Every structure is written in C-alpha cells, then in structure tokens.
C-alpha cells in the first residue's frame, strides 16, 4: 500500500538539465498522507518506548517527573507514562533477570529502526549538459542518507540499453560506459524499471547530453 | 493468394558458436536463411566461457547464452525443470510460436521441447546423429529421446538412414519424420582456380561466345591437365581422430596403400585421442616424407587443405550425413568413403568410390580411385557446379518452412502428409493424434507419454504433471504482463519463391 511498481518522474528545470527519478513511492493522495502520518506516529511511539525502557533500566537516580515540564506537555505525557503497556515495559526493563546488553541493544535497535526505516526506494539520474551525470540512490528498508555518484561528461563514452539474465528472467537495463573503468555503471540498479521507463530515460539522457537544443527527442 | 505466414522461431541447442562443429553451423546457416525468408529466429544455448547473456551476431541474429552448468563436452547438466522459468521468460518476451530443438545429446533441447509443449507451442526436433541400440549408454539415451519425442509435433532427420534410426529409437510414426539434408556453402569450397586460358584462338573465341550468351552453368571448363603415371596423387583426410571416425581403419590402411601405389602421399588434418596411433604407424613404417600430419585446423582452413589433394578419404564407421564429403566434392576431390550410415545418400555415384568398413576393401577402393584418376576417367573439375546445384541452405530453409507450415496448420494435413495418409485416416487413428496437428490438452499429452513403457510411462507422466504444475505456478508468480516484450529486429522482406532456390 505504501509502495507501487516503479514509475518515472521527469523534472526539467532548464533546457540543459534534466532529472529522471524512478521511485516506488505512489503519487500523493489522502490515504497515502494518512498512512504516512500513522507511520510518523509509530516512529515517535517506538522511540519514546525505547527511551522509557532505557530510563527504567539505567536511570534510577534521575527521577521521572513531569513537574518541571510545561503543564500542557505534562498533561499529555502523564497518561502515556501511566498506561498499562508503559508500566509493563518499565517492569520488564527493570527486572534483574534480563542482562544489561539485551535491554540496551533492543532499545537502541528500535531507535535506529524507527529513524532509518523507509518504505520506498527512489533512484534518480541528474543530467547536466556539459558537466555530466549524477546518479543517486535512496534504498528502501533501512539505511542512511543517499548514495551519489558523479560521472563527468568527458568520461562518458556512451549511454545504452542492454539485456541480461537476472534471476529467472531477462531484464532491460540502462548502462553508462565510463572511460577507463572495466565495468559499466548501471543506472537504477536497485529498481531495474521496465522497458518503457528505460527507453524514455535513455532518450531523455541522450537528448539532454548530446543532442543540441531539441531536448527530449531521441 | 494470401501472404505466407511468418513465424517466430526459437532454435534451442546446447551446441552453438563459439564452439566449432557441424550442428553449430547447421543452426547458424538455417537461421540465417529462415530470416531471409521473413521469419524471426532467435537461438537459445547455454553459456560458454566468457560468453553469457544476450548477444547479437553481426547479421542481427539474437543469441541467448543461458548461464548453466556444463556437464560433458559442452552438454549441459540435465536438470529437468530448472530451465523452465528462464525458458518461459524468453519465449514470452520474444513471442515465440515454434520451438526447434537440435541434436539428441543436448539436454537443453529436450527440456525446451517438454516445456514448450506444456506452454502450448509447436515443436520441431532435428536429429543430427546415429545411435546404437546395444550398449547401456545408448539404451538410456534412447529412453530419453523417446520421452522428449513422445509429444513433439514433427521431427527432421538429415538423411534417410538417420530417419530410420530415429524412428526405431523413439518409436515414432514415420509420417511425422521428414528428411532434410544438410547443405554446404559452396562458395566457401571452391576448387583451385583453373589454369590460365589457352592461347589457341579457336578456344578463345569459343569461350567468348559462351560468356556472352550464357551463364557459367552451361559452360564446362576444359579438362584439367591429365595426371601422368608418375605425378604424385595426394590423398586428404580431415576428421576428428576418434574411434567412431574410423581412425583405426585409417592407421591400418595407410601403409598398405602407400606400398601399393608409389606416387601417392597423405595429408591428415584433425586432432583427437587416436592421433598418437597414427604417429606410431608413421614412425614404425618410416613414412614421414609421405604422410603429413597437420594437427587441428579451423573450419575456414579446411578448403585450403582440401584443394592440395586429389582424393578425399573418409573412413568413418558411423555417420548420419557427412557434410565433409560434400565439402570435399565441392572442392573438386574424388571421394573414397565407407558405405555406412547416411553416406551413400549424400553424393551421386560418379563422385564416389564406396568401400566396406574394413581394411582390405578400403585399400582396394582407394586403389580403384587412384587408377580411375590416373586413367582420367573422372571429371573432378565439374564436381563444384554439380554440388552447388544439389545442396543449398536456401533449399533447406524452404523445406524446413514447409514443416513449420504443416505443424501449425497453415497447409492442410493432406498436403503435408500426402493424400494416402489422409484417406486412410480411419485405419491409423491411433497414430493420428501424433501425426496430425497435435492437441495440447494435458490428458492427450499424458496418453502419449503413458505408452512409453511399463515403468517409464508412469515416470514420464509424473514428470509432465510436475512440469504442468510448475507452469501454473509460474503463471501466478511471474504473470505474463510483467514480462517486457522485445522489439523485433527489422524483418527482411520475404523473397519470392523460386527465384532464390539456387
């Protein structure tokens, strides 16, 4: 529900620049917004529960009081802190039977997961005429930040579409042949979009990089 | 007349370039000529070293090198079902109608035929080799062949002997087996250029007359310089030096031939496990100056070796067709060969001297050939044109296309199988299911497999059912609309029939 089949967005800020983005993120709609909001709430709850567990285990000398907080926040936090799951978690974390590393590890893992989880993958190619191509990948699942790679124009031998065996089938993929490198650079390596998208991007990239003025034509 | 049907054809075999060989070049030549006739042809083979993935040959022929494990002499490991997902993907993305398998030792081909039938495609199988019936390996191979040919639509054999052999091995209805011989590219096997034209004014005017009015087919070149009694006759042997190619026979015959005929010498090209025997024979009889061993040569060099000789000696013990003797005759060599397998069908009698596959007769036959050459009874300079008119790949492609038309129902059953068969339909209704346009219904297919043997029949049925279940699973898991369709290589305009039947 949070992801769709890979689809393509093209952005053309200027005639000599084009950005091709392939993403599994569906186009914005109300249900999607609601889902994303739910996801945000889930993240917040996970993080606060993890912090609570850490406090119950290691923060005996720090009294957990809401007195010093502004009253509206205190009113919001008090029922959460005294709710059944929270007290259960506090009791569990405070038990001597569970070792320290288990509590700490679980809590930190939960924090990391809540922060790093991304439901969809986005891969994009930014083409700047006269400068080069920048690829960037934001992979789904876990992972921080964006992996980018820049290939200057004078290193680009060619951009082409190829076919290869992958898994139980044959897929089309877009490659950049880079001078002085043994392997070609595969564009959209994680998503491997279908032939329609690959051909559209191929035409766009070639048009933007090499063919004068008439960008977008093959 | 409606425009003739064109098909999307997948040639499947374990054997393809870069590996050299007869099956490989057969597939290549046939595919090229079928493309010239407007069909779309792709080739599916397994991966060779340094050659995996999807390749295009220079004429636009697309080759899928499927990554697979190679078992023995570049035949891939027989995993009955593992090829199915990739095969289905390729077939769907290329929109294949007809799957054409080659070579009985290729497990890839047998698997493809099974899966293609499960997917509801027409299948053709070409057999290139002869097999025995006696030893354990042959029995196993024959059982496998029976399995995969139980449900094939049509079988093509390269010679009538091969057809007989295949019909017996796989218990087929002879009506569903066609004979389409191999061919040679005659342009690649030209004899040496004739000697410069004589200065005789009469002859010259005759020649001008001919060239003005006529094509070279009616023009007979003058006889080459007659061989004198003391001119050396060179005998060429080109074969892989294996037991089944008759190298033992050759080893025994060479010293006797050289002893009987003083002005002869041998050129032997090829490599194999029996090369050492030949070398021993040369050492023992001190024949170094009369027997030249060239070692392995490439296919392009075959012609250059052949034109150095006068006689081509082919001592093979089993041979389905024997393309090499056609090549030799095309080069203008007189052919001495053993009368085995499909060889007697290949060349007309005035080009060949036959021998029984035994030492004495081979020596005697070679003697007859040498005598005939010395007496100038053989017009070897005419052989090239004659071979050229007999064998052409275009002709092979036309006949193969007729098979495709027959199995896909484009031409009627009566026309395809002959009127006698159609009239007697009631009497052979049991085999009709196999010879007619085959039904794809699972129950009909199971019936065909069940008849293969008491235990084998049940085992084969089980395999077919599993294959069908895998097919259903694949349809669910990798739906058809998630597979990209390949754009076609621009098809050639279909040439008109008759004009290119050269």
From TrEMBL, chain A:
Secretion signal, residue range per the UniProt entry: none
Biological process according to GO: GPI anchor biosynthetic process
The keyword rRNA-binding appears for this protein: no
A Pfam family it matches: PIG-H
Domain of life: Eukaryota
Pathway: Glycolipid biosynthesis; glycosylphosphatidylinositol-anchor biosynthesis
Name recorded for this polypeptide: Phosphatidylinositol N-acetylglucosaminyltransferase subunit gpi15
Gene Ontology CC terms: glycosylphosphatidylinositol-N-acetylglucosaminyltransferase (GPI-GnT) complex
Family the entry assigns: Belongs to the PIGH family.
Keyword annotations: Glycosyltransferase, Transferase
Domain Phosphatidylinositol N-acetylglucosaminyltransferase subunit H conserved: 124-189
Molecular-function annotations in GO: glycosyltransferase activity
Automatic annotation (TrEMBL), chain B:
InterPro entries in UniProt: Glyco_trans_1, PIG-A/GPI3, PIGA_GPI_anchor_biosynthesis
GO cellular component: glycosylphosphatidylinositol-N-acetylglucosaminyltransferase (GPI-GnT) complex
Database matches in Pfam families: Glycos_transf_1, PIGA
CDD domains hit by this protein: GT4_PIG-A-like
Segments crossing the lipid bilayer: 455-474
The EC number(s) this enzyme carries: 2.4.1.198
Presence of keyword rRNA-binding: no
Signal sequence, renumbered to the chain: none
Any single GO BP term: GPI anchor biosynthetic process
EC top class named in words: transferase
Name of the protein: Phosphatidylinositol N-acetylglucosaminyltransferase GPI3 subunit
PIGA GPI anchor biosynthesis domain mapped to chain residues: 46-135
Ranges of residues in domain Glycosyl transferase family: 230-365
Entry keywords, A to Z: Glycosyltransferase, GPI-anchor biosynthesis, Membrane, Transferase, Transmembrane, Transmembrane helix
Cited PANTHER family: N-ACETYLGLUCOSAMINYL-PHOSPHATIDYLINOSITOL BIOSYNTHETIC PROTEIN, PHOSPHATIDYLINOSITOL N-ACETYLGLUCOSAMINYLTRANSFERASE SUBUNIT A
Region of interest (Disordered), ranges: 190-228
Function of the protein: Catalytic subunit in the complex catalyzing the transfer of N-acetylglucosamine from UDP-N-acetylglucosamine to phosphatidylinositol, the first step of GPI biosynthesis.
Organism, as annotated: Staphylotrichum tortipilum
Record-level Gene Ontology MF annotations: phosphatidylinositol N-acetylglucosaminyltransferase activity
Source taxon at top rank: Eukaryota
Pathway the protein contributes to: Glycolipid biosynthesis; glycosylphosphatidylinositol-anchor biosynthesis
């Amino acid at each position: 529900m949070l992801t769709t089949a890979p689809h393509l967005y093209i952005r053309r800020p200027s005639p000599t620049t084009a950005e091709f983005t392939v993403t599994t993120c569906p186009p914005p709609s109300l249900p999607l917004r609601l889902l994303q909001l739910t996801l945000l709430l889930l993240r917040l709850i996970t993080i606060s529960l993890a912090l609570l567990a850490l406090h119950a285990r290691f923060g005996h000398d720090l009294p957990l009081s809401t007195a010093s907080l502004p009253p509206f926040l205190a009113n919001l936090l008090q029922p959460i802190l005294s709710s059944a799951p929270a007290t259960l978690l506090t009791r569990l974390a405070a038990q001597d039977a569970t070792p320290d590393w288990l509590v700490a590890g679980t809590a930190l893992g939960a924090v990391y997961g809540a922060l790093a989880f991304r439901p969809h993958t986005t891969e994009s190619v930014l083409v700047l005429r006269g400068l080069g191509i920048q690829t960037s990948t934001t992979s789904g699942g876990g992972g921080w930040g964006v992996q980018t790679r820049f290939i200057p124009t004078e290193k680009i031998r060619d951009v082409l579409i190829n076919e290869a065996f992958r898994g139980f089938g044959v897929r089309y993929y877009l490659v950049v042949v880079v001078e002085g490198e043994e392997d070609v650079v595969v564009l959209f390596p994680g998503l491997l979009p279908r032939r329609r998208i690959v051909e559209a991007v191929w035409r766009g990239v070639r048009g933007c990089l090499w063919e004068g003025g008439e960008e977008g034509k093959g | 007349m409606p425009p003739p049907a064109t098909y999307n054809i997948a040639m499947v075999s374990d054997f393809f370039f870069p590996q050299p060989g007869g099956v490989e070049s057969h597939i290549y030549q046939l595919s090229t000529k079928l493309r010239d006739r407007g069909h779309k042809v792709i080739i599916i083979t397994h991966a060779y070293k340094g050659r995996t993935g999807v390749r295009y040959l220079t004429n636009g022929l697309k080759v899928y090198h499927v990554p697979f494990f190679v078992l023995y002499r570049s035949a891939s490991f027989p995993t009955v079902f593992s090829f199915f997902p990739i095969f289905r993907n390729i077939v769907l993305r290329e929109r294949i109608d007809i799957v054409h398998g080659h070579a009985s030792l290729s497990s890839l081909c047998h698997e493809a035929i099974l899966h293609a039938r499960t997917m509801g495609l027409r299948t053709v199988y070409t057999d290139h080799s002869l097999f025995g019936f006696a030893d354990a390996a042959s029995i196993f191979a024959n059982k496998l062949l029976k399995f995969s040919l139980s449900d094939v639509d049509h079988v093509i054999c390269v010679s009538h002997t091969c057809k007989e052999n295949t019909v017996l091995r796989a218990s087929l209805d002879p009506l569903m087996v066609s004979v389409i011989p191999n061919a040679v590219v005659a342009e690649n096997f030209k004899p040496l250029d004739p000697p410069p034209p004589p200065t005789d004014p009469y002859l010259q005017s005759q020649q001008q007359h001919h060239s003005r009015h006529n094509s070279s087919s009616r023009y007979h070149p003058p006889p080459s310089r007659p061989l004198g009694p003391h001119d050396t006759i060179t005998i060429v042997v080109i074969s892989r030096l294996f037991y089944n190619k008759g190298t033992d026979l050759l080893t025994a015959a060479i010293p006797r031939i050289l002893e009987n005929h003083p002005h002869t010498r041998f050129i032997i090209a090829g490599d194999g496990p029996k090369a050492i025997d030949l070398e021993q024979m040369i050492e023992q009889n001190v024949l170094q100056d009369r027997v030249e061993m060239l070692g392995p040569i490439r296919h392009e060099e075959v012609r250059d070796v052949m034109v150095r000789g006068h006689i081509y000696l082919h001592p093979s013990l089993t041979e389905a067709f024997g393309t090499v003797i056609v090549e030799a005759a095309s080069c203008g060599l007189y052919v001495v060969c053993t009368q085995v397998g499909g060889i007697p069908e290949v060349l007309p009698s005035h080009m060949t001297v036959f021998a029984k596959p035994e030492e004495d007769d081979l020596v005697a036959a070679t003697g007859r050939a040498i005598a005939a050459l010395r007496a100038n009874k053989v017009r070897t300079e005419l052989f090239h044109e004659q071979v050229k008119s007999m064998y052409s790949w275009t002709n092979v492609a036309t006949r193969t296309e007729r098979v495709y038309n027959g199995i896909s129902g484009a031409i009627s059953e009566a026309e395809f199988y002959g009127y006698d068969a159609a009239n007697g339909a009631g009497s052979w209704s049991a085999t009709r299911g196999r010879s007619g346009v085959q039904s794809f219904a699972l129950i009909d297919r199971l019936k065909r497999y069940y008849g293969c043997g008491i235990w084998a029949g049940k085992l084969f049925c089980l395999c077919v059912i599993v294959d069908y279940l895998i097919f259903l699973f694949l349809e669910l898991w990798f739906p058809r609309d998630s597979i990209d369709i390949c754009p076609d290589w621009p098809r050639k305009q279909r040439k008109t029939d008759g004009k290119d039947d050269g």
